[in-house]
């Protein structure tokens, strides 16, 4: 039976960006949410900035928490569900970390006992404040917090994979204590899947939390290498969805495409709508997709300084809350889509060893083989090389054929047909 996929957007306030928490204006938030609801979307992901909400380890500002609740209630009035990110963390090239973790108080975000206590208290407090709201979808621990744990961050908080395991378990547990039974999760940028020395691993992404989140950005080398209308660029989000399934223990674990956007100039403004249509259509061909949440709702105001150029134009709507072509495209998909993907019966074997993740990255043999298969119409998924002969696992996922990257023949233009 066809079913609905959730369609939403990452909420970037039209006034003041995420600094709006410093001058919270509920009427402005309501107007923003009206413009989102008018697109026919059903949820938003919102971002309290951690140092604004918890400026001292022992102070979680009640007024800030109250304002978050007001935002969630305003969303409910407009038929919008809300997922709340906790530890911001990192957004649009800026780091937002409380002073009690930096410089003179430098402590590791993932291993210091006092920092862990403060983080857990904060996440538990936010979750508890929203636990009785029927439109509260649950907590995401933070936005791409893995970028703090390794290079290329200029001052990383180093940790081992085992320490990250413990951190994830404790923080997700804190969310559960605050709001029992809600689908809490964590989310990382694609270094989790692609970077050999990243302590946040694919297995953690696919096994911790209620569902797997993937963030798809084609400025990671995909569009540079293959071009804006190539198979890899237009199917990159679908690739990450299917790549994540290799590590999942649940053969039908839901996957949330939690961030995806059309970054200029790799995706020029005049091509953004076509890229959006292709990306969404290809993601909808992936079984077990929970939802698609676009980045982002409103453009960043040109009155704000020092953002990378691409960040200013990613919105579905302008600063004046007018829908752009990309917004109208996503609105049509949300309104008109049918979700009934056939099983993906061909699986490409991927290395279970996290030290070999770069094979799955742009330019790696697994990455390139996946898109050669895609260009040939094979609709591939992935399976760990350690599970490639596990008949029960393959049967549970509907896989009837497993191939390795060296068994995939070349296709015209190396799988990058335009």
Can you offer a commentary on this structure?
The protein is an alpha/beta fold. It has two domains: 6-336, Alpha-Beta Barrel (TIM Barrel), CATH 3.20.20.80; 346-415, no CATH class. 33% of the residues lie in helices and 13% in strands. The chain has helices spanning 26-37, 50-53, 62-77, 113-130, 161-178, 191-194, 202-207, 222-226, 231-234, 236-244, 272-283, 325-336, 365-375, 391-397; strands at 6-10, 43-46, 81-87, 90-91, 94-95, 136-142, 212-216, 255-260, 289-294, 346-350, 381-384, 401-403. Helix 1 (26-37) links the parallel strand 1 (6-10) and strand 2. Helix 1 (26-37) packs parallel to helix 3 (62-77) and helix 11 packs parallel to helix 12 (325-336). The longest helix has 18 residues, at 113-130. The chain is globular, with a radius of gyration of 21 Å. The two termini are 33 Å apart.
Short précis:
The chain contains 14 helices and twelve strands. The protein is an alpha/beta fold and 418 residues long.
């Amino acid at each position: 039976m066809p079913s609905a996929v959730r369609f939403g957007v990452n909420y970037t306030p039209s006034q003041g960006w995420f600094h709006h928490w410093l001058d919270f204006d509920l009427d402005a938030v309501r107007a923003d949410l009206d413009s989102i609801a008018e697109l026919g979307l059903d949820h938003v992901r919102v971002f309290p900035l951690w140092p604004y909400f918890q400026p001292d380890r022992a102070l979680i500002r009640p007024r800030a928490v109250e304002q978050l609740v007001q935002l969630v209630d305003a969303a409910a009035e407009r038929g919008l569900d809300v997922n709340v990110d906790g530890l911001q963390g990192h957004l649009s090239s800026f780091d937002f970390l409380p002073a009690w973790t930096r410089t003179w108080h430098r402590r590791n975000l993932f291993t210091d006992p006092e920092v862990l206590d403060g983080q857990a208290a904060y996440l538990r407090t936010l979750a508890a404040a929203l636990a009785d709201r029927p439109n509260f979808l649950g907590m995401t621990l933070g936005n791409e917090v893995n970028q703090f744990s390794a290079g290329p961050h200029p001052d990383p908080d180093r940790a081992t994979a085992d320490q990250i395991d413990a951190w994830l378990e404790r923080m997700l547990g804190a969310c559960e204590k605050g709001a029992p039974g809600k689908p809490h999760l964590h989310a990382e940028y694609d270094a989790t899947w692609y970077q050999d020395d990243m302590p946040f691993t694919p297995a953690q992404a696919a096994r911790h939390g209620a569902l797997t989140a993937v963030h798809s950005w084609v400025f990671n080398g995909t569009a540079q290498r293959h071009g804006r209308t190539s198979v890899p660029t237009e199917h990159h989000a679908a690739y990450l969805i299917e790549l994540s399934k290799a590590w999942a223990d649940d053969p039908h674990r839901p996957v949330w495409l939690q961030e995806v956007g059309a970054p200029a100039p790799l995706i020029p403004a005049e091509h953004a709508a076509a890229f959006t249509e292709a990306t969404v259509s290809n993601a909808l061909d992936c079984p077990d997709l929970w939802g698609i949440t676009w980045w982002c709702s409103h453009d960043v105001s040109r009155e704000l300084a020092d953002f990378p150029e691409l960040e200013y134009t990613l919105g579905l709507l302008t600063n004046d809350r007018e829908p752009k072509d990309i917004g109208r495209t996503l609105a049509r998909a949300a309104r008109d889509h049918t979700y009934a993907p056939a099983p993906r019966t061909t699986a490409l074997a991927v290395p279970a060893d996290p030290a070999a993740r770069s094979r799955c990255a742009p330019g790696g043999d697994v990455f390139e083989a996946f898109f050669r298969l895609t260009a040939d119409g094979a609709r591939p998924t992935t399976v760990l090389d350690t599970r490639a002969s596990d008949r029960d696992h393959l049967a549970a996922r509907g896989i009837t054929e497993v191939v390795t990257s060296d068994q995939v023949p070349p296709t015209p233009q190396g799988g990058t047909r335009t």
